[in-house]
Amino acid sequence: MTRVDVMVEGQTEETFVRELLYDPLVNRGVFLYPILLRTSAQGKGGVVSYGKVRSQVLRQCLSDASAKVTTMIDLFRLPKDFPEKQACAAAQLYSRVDCLEQAFASDIGCGNFVPYLSVHEFEGLLFSDATRFANWFDEPEPLQQLNTVATGFQNPEHINDGAQTAPSKRIESSLGRLGYQKPVHGPLIAMDIGLDCIRAQCPHFDAWVTKLEGLGV
User: Fold this and answer.
1) Residue in 136, 168, 154 with CA at minimum distance from that of residue 204
2) Average pLDDT, stretch 71-94?
3) What Pfam families does the database record attribute to this sequence (predicted)?
4) Tens of pLDDT, residues 146-189
5) Is 5 in a helix, a strand, or coil?
6) Range(s) of the domain holding residue 155
């Protein structure tokens, strides 16, 4: 049995780990425990600065050397003080995120740390099968807008991270007036899509899950 503490930036990711990742990984001898990152004394969730993330990740890594620690943090709006952010910026998407994750691992400096950045954010995973939004919303025009987005990119992880064109912004633009709420609908839609489909459509996410599976061997 291998314990893996998954440090997440919000309640949506926390639910996603518990509801979609926990059981498949348990079958591989890997037990996932999501932990909300704390960004202030009053609240949890969100990544405001790298310094606050670093101290929590490092503390978790040092608290139990027999456990592994990983992260589920959005590449979108990554803090400006993130290690090597400028140096990695010019690289193509997957080379850039690999560069950032390597810099993250190097800065933490603990052998039990497995960094992961969501490309570009959690909501991108929901475009693995955008037809599943129809299970929760029934107006055809906004659903067609999301399907058009999904088919317009090489894969969901390529849906870009612009201020108005990131996956979350596209969903909010189409479904916000219909009552879309990320903490409620995000995990439910992900469960409707299923882990196998998400892994097939999102290579970087799949590589992370594969690493986690390997920890139980």
Assistant:
1) 154
2) 95
3) DUF4276
4) 999 999 999 999 998 688 899 999 999 999 889 999 999 999 99
5) strand
6) 123-194
**Which run of H or E residues covers position 6?**
strand 2-8
Q: 107 and 136 share a domain?
A: no
Residue 159 has φ and ψ, to the nearest 5°, of: -65, 120
Residue with tokens 């001898």: 29
Rounded CA-CA distance 140/178 in Å is: 12
Residue with tokens 């009053």: 42
Is the same domain home to 69 and 90? Answer: yes
In the block, residue with structure tokens 């995973």: 125
Task: Reduce the secondary structure of 28-94 to three states and give it as a string.
Answer: CCEEEEEEECECCCCCECCCCCHHHHHHHHHHHHHHCCCCEEEEEEECCCCCCCCCCHHHHCCCCHH
For the stretch 25-79, pLDDT in tens is 999 999 999 999 987 555 555 688 999 999 999 999 999 999 999 999 999 989 9
Name the pTM for this structure. 0.94
CB atoms within 10 A of CB 43: 9
